[in-house]
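User: What would this chain look like folded?
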Amino acid sequence: MELISVVLENKKKVPKQTRNKIDKLVEKFLQDLEDDIHEMLCCNNDDPDDYCGLDSSRDTVAEVETAIRLFPDVLSRNSQRNFYDNDDPVERVVYYLHPIQCLSSNLLRISLMTCSFIPVLARLAIEFGTFERHLRGGLLNQNFKWVTVLEDLVYGMGGGSQEHKKLADNTCLELMKELKESGLLVKEDILRYELLRKSFVQDYSHFAKFRFLVEWDLAALMQPNHHKHVILHFAATSIQAFRVVFEAGIRYFPKKKGISILFSKDEDDDTPFQDACNNHGREKVVKIIEDTLTYYHSDTPLNIADTLLSAAVDDDIHLDCVYFLLRRQPDVLQKMLSAKAETAKATATADGDEDNNSKVIRKRKRKS
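Assistant: Here's the prediction, encoded as structure tokens.
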């Protein structure tokens, strides 16, 4: 390094040919270094013998930030990728990704090595104005499958053993928390990009991301999409996901919505309860529902009467909800009628007392 410094300091003192050579070497050095940094950010080769990318167990966020600040243009440079369709392995599709997309685009172990650097790339891209403002530093850039980097994180990394999947899920959860703290993940994203549904798409029993998002936006648990699907419709494909999502509904909406959401109709009039029974059998589904209701009933009594009335008049709730509640608590109608009669009697008594009081007052006025 001392020798290089001496050469550069004495550049004007050497012959013209040497000066020109120094200029070319410096230019080549800078270009090669920029290319190498770009390749490092974009490498997602899953061959360990041919991997030349970032490694979170070796590289630090500060080191990556320093490299990018030297060559900020690498954030906007595309990297070419080839995609082969499973149905036609010969047909090749060429697509291009930015570095921030490459850090999350591989669904195997490489993503765990690189995805932790996503926040720093997004932050620097915003600082340098690399992308349009609404793209949030590239987090909302879409790949060839119209999936954003943010959605990639919520989907999870997939692949490998159950232990690997859980590790990937926890890693993504920590990144989501970091993005939330920095304002790069906002509450409105949960509904806009259907993040609740995407948080449990992987077929394994770990729902940390789902719980994190639900606690942030409880309303998203009950909000239907443009096809009138609620989250429980999607969860019906997995018995474990169905259990977790239904438990969340009962936990946060125990009075009425938590039960009625089981029978929320989509645009084809199908309900989560019907879908779950078709996929897993009625007996197994009913057991999950009963176990959940029994568990949460000890903390918050379920309002069966109000739920029954709501289901009976709501066109978006299937009548199966009414039948389900009546079978579960056959005397609910009798109790409702008794309560109504008691209310009417109390009202009549109150009206009688009021009339008697009025008579007494009128007598006193006449005497006066």
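Residues 219-343 form one domain. If you want, I can go into more detail on any region.
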